[in-house]
Predict the structure.
Amino acid sequence: MNKFPYSKISAGLNDPDLRVSIAGLRLKNPVIAASGTFGYGKEYRGLLDIAALGGICTKGLTLNPRPGNEGTRLHETPSGLLNSIGLENPGIKVFIEKELPALRELGPAVIANLSGSSIEEYAQGAALLNSSSIDMIELNISCPNVKAGGMAFGLDPDTAYSVVRQVRRSAEDKPLMVKLSPNAPDLPGVAKSCVAAGADALSLVNTFKAMAIDVKKRKPVFENISAGLSGPAIRPIALRMVWELKEAVPVPIIGIGGIASAEDALEFLLAGAAAVQVGSATFAHPPVMNEIVAGIEDYMRQYGFLEIGELDLRKNPGT
Ligand SMILES: Cc1cc2nc3c(=O)[nH]c(=O)nc-3n(C[C@H](O)[C@H](O)[C@H](O)COP(=O)(O)O)c2cc1C
């Protein structure tokens, strides 16, 4: 059996090329720090080789500063993590002035995660980011729409379309990646709406709506009752969603959800993801993203793949 079925020349002579291009943005490899789990990068200085990452998604940014939620913000569950941070951030202007210069210096592509509670707020935030030095916007549409009774924008294809369309207009110079909520009842419908409204790429998943109860206190752990579930517990569901959306939309898909090893990341890349994001795993083991990059490279070398795109198993099915 040929151990190197996809090697273009002879196996071992060619180094795998880990670079990927997403909506015109070149990343040195497909491993990106997920929003809300990597601060603005500097928090992790000395804990891993930050320059070796493909990209960094910032903590969710809003037009105006937000203090975040009261009470418990993080709670561990079996193979998972619940969070209710509430988008604590200094506001986009302060981010651009105080955080962005140092973040740029770190080396990886800078992806600004944009959040908001109304279409107008999203649009103004997008316009500010458009005139900054960020490389890409990741639009978080899992935020509650205050004017529509608090239902998240990303749950419905029509509201998703409206917010993506507006942000696309307000930030016409930047590549736009839209981050989908796995809580949407019709995820392919929302994905198609986002692409129709101008999304250049999609990232998924954000956290799953979940909750925990403190049995001793006999009350919910979180003030908002529900919180977002992340970590290995969600990975198989996230993987299935990436697999399905790959068939539904023509744009690059960035896989997120419980990735904690190179093998986990490879599952998403084999499912057709153009890149991956790693979130909760970094809390437990900060160098994990460096190890994932090395593990992907080893795998490519072992199986004779030369480019990340060749991993998609629909292009190169296993035997
Ligand atoms: C503490 C925490 C904060 C997060 N904050 C944000 C955020 O501000 N914006 C966003 O789009 N996603 C946010 N997320 C979601 C992650 O970026 C990611 O989509 C999710 O955690 C699933 O990936 P993981 O299982 O690798 O953590 C947050 C996740 C965690 C755990």
Summary: The pocket of flavin mononucleotide is lined by residues 34-37, 59-60, 81, 83, 85, 87, 113, 140, 179, 206-207, 230-231, 234, 256-259, 278-281 (CB under 6 Å). The CA atoms of residues 137 and 176 lie 5 Å apart. Residues 1-11 have pLDDT under 50 and may be disordered. DSSP finds eight helices and 16 strands in the chain.
